[in-house]
Design brief:
With about 80 residues, this protein is mainly alpha-helical. The chain has helices at about 10-15, 20-25, 30-40, 40-50.
Length: about 80
């Protein structure tokens, strides 16, 4: 999805467009590298909080930990 995205917000965050990284003193692909190595919020939540092998069994669906589009509080404004 990231490699084929036309969404300017995704392209900025992944370092394919703009110069957000310069103000942060980071490489252009810093966010991509973090997500690639660590995972995204959903993957991390499932692994450590949800039903993953190391998880403690706190379901995200239907709680405030869900994405805002699913009734939760998790929202990330566009990076600019």
């Amino acid at each position: 999805m990231l490699a084929t995205s036309t969404d300017p917000n995704v392209l900025r965050m992944m370092g394919a467009e703009g110069n957000l990284n310069e103000g942060l003193g980071l490489e252009p692909d810093w966010a991509y590298n973090i997500i690639k190595q660590v995972g995204n919020y959903g993957e991390l939540y499932e692994a450590y909080m949800g039903g993953g092998e190391l998880g403690i069994g706190i379901d995200r669906a239907g709680t405030l930990n869900a994405l805002w589009t699913d009734g939760g509080l998790m929202y990330s404004p566009p990076m600019r």
